[in-house]
Amino acid sequence: MTHSRAGDGTPKRRLSGLGRHVRTHGSALALVGLASIIGALASFAFQILTARYLGPADFGLLSAFFAIVNVAAIGSSSVQNSVTVETASALAAAVPESRRSRWPVEALAIGLTGGAIVAVLSPVLAASLDTTVPVVLAAAVCVPLSFLFADSLGLIQGTGNASGAVWWSTASLVARVLFVVAAMAVGWGLGGVVGGVTAATAAAVVGALITARHIPRPPRGVFSRAGLTVVVLTISFAWLTSADVFFLRSTASATVAGTYASVAVLVKAAFLLPSTLSLYLLPRFVRNIDEPGLTRAGVMATLGLSAVGGIAMIALFALAGAPIMSLLYGSAYEDGAAILVPVAVAYLPWIMAQGMLIRITAISSRGAAVLLVISVAVQWLVFTAVLPDIAAMLTAFGLLGVIVLVAFLLFDWLRSRRSVRIEGKERTSNESAD
Questions:
Q1: In angstroms, rounded to a whole number, what is the distance separating the alpha carbons of residues 363 and 230?
Q2: Can you state the percent helix, strand and coil of the chain, rounding each to 5?
Q3: What does the pLDDT look like over 330-376, one tens digit per residue?
Q4: Dihedral over alpha carbons 360, 361, 367, 370 (to 10 degrees)
Q5: Could you point out which of 165, 259, 290, 397 has its C-alpha 20 to 30 Å from the C-alpha of 325?
């Protein structure tokens, strides 16, 4: 703490620089965290309500609808990250407002193309997912909506307004519950639920578009070299942390795969912390990209918090894994308690790597993008060779996560070292000029 004198001559305590930093960012992060928690609760409520209302048969059809929507969500999240990075970079560099169209042309192009492909392939997808063509067509409508939503959220987040972006995401999830409750009240069944999800998504898109309408669009878009790098980083990492469930479903029995999937859902809750930090810190890392001291503090804080969250999860599952599985899933999933801790341990380096991914995304690291693409191929080869041996899969998954984490740390160190070297040269040049 430091001291100064008030107007009456009495000492007045003033927060130190670190204290002000913690207080300012802590309050903002608390708002982002609150919105994220409310969104997670709304998503959980939606799952419980629809499962109880529809019954197993129709809920299976709804799951097929979300299988398509969630694939689109991975792509749209990459667009959001790309737009966030480019917007924050342009604002930090005081780049003149772009002459590019203010319309989200790239998001529309990707979304409409994706939706059209889903619509054309609807008979094939319906057969492979054991659902109906109307359900697939409804998912096709949601594809362009998700990309438009992501583009607007990226603009909002890129200005540093992380709470604005996350509250719109939360609003879409809460609206989904409200629309579905209304559909249930009038007895519209599966069609009402799917229609409610689509309507809630459309309403959130309109709101986000209105909020983002005055934000200057950055001169570089998703299809720039940096933009595509961010897309590759986001999609590759999302696949790497989801492929275990996918591969196990295709190699193990339905019961084993279902039990593992239920465990993975619990473990992946730990990703909420680095995901929340990413919403807030990504544009700030971009703005301070060449300030190694400040960036280093942010990177270490993010890495430390992600590690603490992951370790706390492992401790919780070690102490109360069986009661948690029984309470949430019932007796049919009791076998999952035996693998809760091993799965959590295997995921720990990936949870920490997602914390580091914020910095890696901010610098649009092409080296990290290449690494993740190679990791996807390695993961496919290893999982194909060892499954259905879950222990071997988890060992390989955890080791790959450690390699990715160490590589991320190396890429960050190299970038920081280059920034220090450039800063030193500029200082020397200025001193010589004086």
A1: 9
A2: 85, 0, 15
A3: 777 788 889 999 999 999 999 999 989 988 988 889 999 999 999 99
A4: 120
A5: 397
Query: 10 Å Cβ neighbour count for 265?
Result: 12
Tokens of 53: 């209302």
d(CA 353, CA 362): 14
Strand partners of residue 12? 4
Q: Which residue shows structure tokens 């990504």?
A: 282
Among candidate residues 377, 371, 338, 339, the one with its CA nearest the CA of residue 357: 371
CA–chain centroid gap for 14, Å, is: 37
- pLDDT confidence band for 9 (50 / 70 / 90): very low
* Mean pLDDT over each residue of the chain, to the nearest integer: 83
Contacts of residue 270, Cβ cutoff 8 Å, sequence gap at least 6: 309, 310, 313, 344, 347, 351
Confidence of residue 203 (pLDDT cuts 50, 70, 90): very high
Is the previous residue joined to 388 through a cis bond, with omega within 30 degrees of 0?
A: yes
**What pLDDT, on the 0 to 100 scale, is given for residue 404?**
96
Q: What are phi and psi of 335, to 5 degrees?
A: -65, -20
Cα distances from 209 to residues 11, 72, 370, 381, in angstroms, run: 50, 19, 33, 42
Q: How many CA atoms lie within 13 A of 102 on its CB side?
A: 8
pTM beyond 0.85: the answer is: no
* Three-state SS at 382: helix
In the block, which residue shows the tokens 């204290």?
Answer: 19
Rg of the chain in Å (alpha carbons): 23
Are 105 and 133 in contact, with CB atoms under 8 Å apart?
no
Paired tokens of 79: 């667009």
- Measured in degrees and rounded to the nearest 5, phi and psi for residue 401 equal -65, -40
CB 166 within 8 A of CB 172: no
Kindly state the tokens that stand for 24.
């300012």
pLDDT digit string (tens) for 70-114? 778 888 888 888 898 888 888 877 666 555 556 788 888 989 999
Place of tokens 């999830």: 173
pLDDT tens digit sequence for 14-33? 445 545 555 656 677 778 88
Q: Which of 429, 274, 293, 418 is nearest to 349 (CA)?
A: 274
Helix (H, G, I), strand (E, B) or coil at 93: coil
- Nearest of 69, 189, 201, 87 to residue 140 by alpha carbon: 69
